[in-house]
Amino acid sequence: DAHIIQLDRKTFDAPNLKKLLTNKDITKIFHYARADMAHIKHYLCVDVENIQCTKNMIISELSLLPDINFK
To answer: Could you tell me the pTM of the whole model?
Structure first.
């Protein structure tokens, strides 16, 4: 499932979201997590636990491919 959340810009109070993001038993999947983590840390003041970043996964998978010569 994918979910979009719009926060109250005055308080950024989201206790259920904070509980979810800090739960080590739930894997959170992001693409280019570095930018997302910076915003979450700034606005929600939490450290997200158990993160998988698809950008890093793609780079890791590409590194396993044999060298390709396009000449």
So the answer is: 0.68
Q: What is the pLDDT of residues 31-45, one digit of tens each?
A: 888 888 999 999 999
How many angstroms separate the CA atoms of 50 and 29, rounded?
9
CA atoms within 13 A on the CB side of 27: 5
The residue ranking higher by pLDDT, 27 or 61, is 27
- Do residues 24 and 60 make contact, with C-beta atoms less than 8 angstroms apart? no
Q: With CA atoms as reference, report the closest residue to 11 among 47, 40, 44.
A: 44
Biggest alpha carbon distance in the chain? 56
Q: Give the closest residue to 43 by CA, choosing from 17, 69, 4.
A: 17
Residue 24 confidence (pLDDT): 96
